User: Which sequence fits this backbone?
């Protein structure tokens, strides 16, 4: 349709302007509300803090040891202490802190509780097994290694941060 | 595109007469501000409804963050006001809108009164309007407690004492409204339920009746 032939009738003009103005008002009204509802999804993830687990660097050995500690969890207007645990071990020069949550369906794994495989992490729910460094053993249900905490050593003490996935 | 979707639906369900019936109606000259500017007084009813729509929408979004519990109510309001992006705006809309509804409703009432629009055959619509007035006052009263701060608490103390002053049923009304002997956890839960379910339900029903009657009877004639 060319410019010349397209004559806008009075009715069309009013329809356009009223729809435009109405749409603008509706958008102005709804925009803050929608943005508010979307806030949790748009909020940048807060960087997590490192917390001491009461274990010194010297105490960490090749044998995984379980540490229990608590973190301050902020959930909107509600903040609470949450208990966490980790399996801390030395792997070469590195210190590994494995999350005890099975990567299959989220049960809790333990070290050396399976009599047939004493040098492995074992999940009692579906018999998932992991190597000492957290690698999942093929043929068992888990499909990826145990998650690891970020580890920091400050003044010889172990501090753990957020949990990251591997592989 | 939109036209095609509409035509497709219309062909099957014949929806055009439905909205035509609602949308196509005459606006008499004496209520059209384009003819007499003073006719803007006829807009107050629509303005009241517009603010009510804002109240319903902003209220719906506020309940995404608000919890009606005496431990967390204030904290959740503080959080949505100060931590949630645009939470301040949405709560502001609900806060100021609450007063605006009452102002608009009052102006609308004055217009209806001074144009004599309440007279026969529109008496019933006046009655429904008065009921709407009470429902909206109730919404204002119950909503005022929800932030659970000092102002909210003591306003409700006063409000319930007013209820208690009623003869014969005073005590009963007070306990019923407070949900117990003190203004506390049960009062807050109760006011929340009344504020977001019971009164809005009544409001929508009465508004439906209000609008049905004005369409049925038309706008009252000029002075």
Assistant:
């Amino acid at each position: 349709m060319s410019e010349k032939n397209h004559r806008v009738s009075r009715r069309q003009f009013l329809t356009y302007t009223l729809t435009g103005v109405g749409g603008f008002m509706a958008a102005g009204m709804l925009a803050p509300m929608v943005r508010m509802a979307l806030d949790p999804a748009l909020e940048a993830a807060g960087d997590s803090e490192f917390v001491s687990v009461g274990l010194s660097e010297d105490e960490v050995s090749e044998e995984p040891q379980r540490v229990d500690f608590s973190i301050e969890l902020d959930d909107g207007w509600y903040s609470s202490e949450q208990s966490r645990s980790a399996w801390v071990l030395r792997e070469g020069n590195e210190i590994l802190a494995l999350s005890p949550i099975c990567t299959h369906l989220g049960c809790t794994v333990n070290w050396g509780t399976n009599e047939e495989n004493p040098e492995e992490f074992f999940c009692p729910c579906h018999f998932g097994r992991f190597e000492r460094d957290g690698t999942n053993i093929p043929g068992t249900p888990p499909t990826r290694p145990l998650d690891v905490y970020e580890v920091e050593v400050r003044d010889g003490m172990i501090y753990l941060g957020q949990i990251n996935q591997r592989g | 595109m939109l036209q095609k979707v509409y035509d497709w639906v219309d062909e099957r369900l014949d929806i055009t007469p439905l909205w035509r019936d609602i949308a196509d109606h005459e606006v008499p000259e004496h209520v059209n501000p384009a003819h007499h500017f003073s006719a803007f007084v006829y807009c107050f009813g629509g303005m009241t409804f517009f603010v009510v729509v804002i109240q319903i929408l902003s209220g719906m979004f506020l309940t995404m963050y608000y919890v009606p519990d005496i431990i967390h109510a204030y904290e959740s309001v503080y959080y949505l006001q100060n931590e949630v992006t645009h939470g301040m705006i949405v709560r502001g809309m609900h806060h100021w809108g609450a007063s605006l509804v009452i102002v608009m409703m009052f102006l609308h009432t004055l217009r209806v009164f001074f144009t004599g629009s309440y007279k026969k055959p529109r008496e019933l619509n006046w009655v429904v309007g008065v009921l709407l007035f009470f429902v909206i006052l109730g919404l204002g009263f119950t909503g005022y407690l929800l932030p659970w701060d000092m102002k909210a608490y003591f306003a409700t103390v006063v409000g319930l004492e007013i209820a208690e002053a009623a003869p014969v049923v005073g005590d009963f009304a007070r306990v019923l409204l407070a949900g117990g002997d003190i203004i506390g956890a049960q009062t807050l839960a109760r006011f929340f339920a009344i504020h977001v379910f019971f009164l809005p339900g009544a409001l929508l029903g009465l508004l439906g009746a209000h609008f049905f009657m004005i369409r049925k009877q038309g706008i009252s004639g000029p002075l």
Remarks:
- Chain B touches chain A at residues 54, 57-58, 61, 64-65, 67, 72, 75-76, 78-80, 83-87, 89-90, 93 (CB under 8 Å).
- The CA atoms of residues 18 and 24 of chain B lie 10 Å apart.
- The radius of gyration of chain B is 21 Å.
- Residues 185-217 of chain B form the longest helix (33 residues).
